Amino acid sequence: MLDYKNEVKPVWCVGCGHFGVLNAVYQSLAMLQLPPEDVALISGIGCSSRLPGYVSTYGFNSIHGRALPIAIGAKIARPETTVLVITGDGDALSIGMGHFPHAARRNVDMTMIMMDNGIYGLTKGQVSPTLEEGAITKTTIYGNIDPPIDAVQLALGCDASFIARSTSLDPKHMAEMIVLGIRHKGFSLVHVLSPCVTFRGRDQYTWIRESTEPLPADYDPKDLRSALEAAYRKDKLCTGLIYQKERPDYGTLVKMLNEKAKAKGSPTLEEVAHQFSI
Ligand code: SF4
Ligand code: MG
Fold first, then answer.
1. What is the pLDDT of residues 133-186, one digit of tens each?
2. 136, 242, 248, 270: least surrounded by Cβ within 10 Å?
3. Which atom of ligand 1 is nearest to the CA of 198?
């Protein structure tokens, strides 16, 4: 059995939900027995983005909000690599928001694990775009007045071909969702509710337990109407595989484009790019 732990000790606060995500990443890679040299974990900046440093695969703790374009570049350069994008709510849905819709609609074959705690933990507790209305943080001392962005609803609106939700309370379930996401040929989002105990409090675990509900056993993730109903439920946040659709991934479409160019006697995309290489 391959082991994906390295010798670096996580610096997260005691009780941070991200330990559960790290555990799930180890489990999912072990379930798939992927050789570490065939996996790349690309992150931005934030407490969540530290995760690649604790895994014995390739990893890049890059720049704020830019995990997706770097990951897309890695996937295009090495299509055989399993690419995981490791990000948080602020990194993905504020600083990096411009990249998310395009990675999803282009269906780039990679798995994005978004650890959502509604706050900027690394910079010590500012409001993030997923924080619920009325919540108190250091920058919303009279209560948050902005409606939150729901990552699952957003992904559905961007035609993401795989959308799942899990929580740090259940790393085994999360690992199963990550495995399904990696096996899916196209862009997959695993949205994870992962508490920041330091700046949102330990009662976040209770809040997650009480506000989530697994999808029913007879739920059909291929049915868009069911997915929309699940994503827009007012009373509970659904966990499990919410939506999955088969459609060609970006790499396949680029190959088809190159074949068309060749048939017309035109250069392929690689040949055009090569003209600009040093
Ligand atoms: Fe986790 Fe919050 Fe501590 Fe960051 S500040 S390590 S998110 S508990
Ligand atoms: Mg956050």
1. 999 999 999 999 999 999 999 999 999 999 999 999 999 999 999 999 999 999
2. 270
3. 8
66, two tokens: 């830019």
Which ligand is located closest to the Cα atom of residue 90? 2
| Ligand 1 geometric centre to CA of 16 (Å) | 5
pTM: 0.96
Q: Round to whole Å and give the CA distance between 175 and 192.
A: 11
Model pLDDT for residues 185-218, shown as the tens digit of each residue: 999 999 999 999 999 999 999 999 999 999 999 9
Please list all protein residues whose beta carbon sits less than 5 angstroms from ligand 2, which is an ion.
88-90, 117
* Closest residue by CA, ligand 1 atom 6: 12
Question: Quick check: 238 and 213 in contact, CB under 8 A?
Answer: yes
Q: What's the CA angle centered on 247, arms 244 and 251, to 5 degrees?
A: 120
